[in-house]
Amino acid sequence: MRARHASAVGVGPGCWPIVYASAVGGVRVVEPGADLALCLAVVSAVTDVPLADDLVACGEIGLAGEIRQVNQTPRRLAEAARLGFRRALVPVSVAGASTPEIEVVGVATLIDAMQRAGLPPVGRRMAASTI
Q1: pLDDT for residue 110
Q2: Mean pLDDT of the chain
Q3: Helix ranges, the chain (H)
Q4: Domain count of the chain?
Q5: Distance between alpha carbon 107 and the CA centroid of its chain, in Å?
Q6: What is the pTM of this model?
Q7: Which CATH number covers residue 90?
Q8: What CA–CA distance (Å, rounded) separates 129 from 118?
Q9: Most CB atoms closer than 10 Å: which of 9, 26, 53, 63?
Q10: At 91, is the pLDDT very low, low, confident or very high (cuts 50, 70, 90)?
Q11: Interatomic CA distance for residues 89 and 105, integer angstroms
């Protein structure tokens, strides 16, 4: 999790250990569209609250925790639906780009995405106690 994303959810420097994440097959994740999914996965791991199996997330996270649009969102949603996902968290700017097979939920910030994903709020006290 990038330091800028950690501060967006209220976690200060030094509260979390260094986190390394790997993608299937060792693919390097340099796509900004993976920011939101990666942050939700880290918060899920730290809080020990699983994400829904049918949830997909797509969006870039800005310095202030805002969720930004990424390229080809409608194509990404169509592919996610084809793979069996039924709910998608995307930036509010593209929340209208829905497909009949998938429920699209627009989120404005990382905190908003965490709430919509069913994750508890994370703060300094909670993060320090989970280490």
Answers
A1: 94
A2: 80
A3: 3-8, 35-47, 73-82, 110-116, 124-129
A4: 1
A5: 10
A6: 0.75
A7: 3.30.230.10
A8: 20
A9: 9
A10: very high
A11: 5
**Hey, CA dihedral for 93, 122, 36, 102, is it positive or negative?**
negative
| Distance between CA atoms of residues 63 and 9, nearest Å | 11
Q: What is the pLDDT of residue 26?
A: 62
How deeply is 67 buried, as exposed, middle or buried, from its count of CB atoms within 10 A (0-12, 13-18, 19+)?
Answer: buried
Q: Does residue 59 contact residue 36 with C-beta atoms inside 8 Å?
A: yes
In the prediction, which pLDDT does 30 show? 76
For the segment 35-64, the average pLDDT, to the nearest whole number, is 91
Domain around 65: 3-129
**pLDDT exceeds 90 at position 42:** no
Q: Of how many residues is the chain composed? A: 131
Under 8 Å between Cβ of 77 and 104? yes
pLDDT at 47: 86
Q: Per DSSP, what are the bridge partners of residue 66?
A: 109
Gap between the Cα atoms of 124 and 9, Å rounded: 9
| DSSP code, position 51 | P
Cα angle 93, 73, 56 (rounded to 5 degrees) comes to: 95
CA gap 78, 88 in Å, rounded: 11
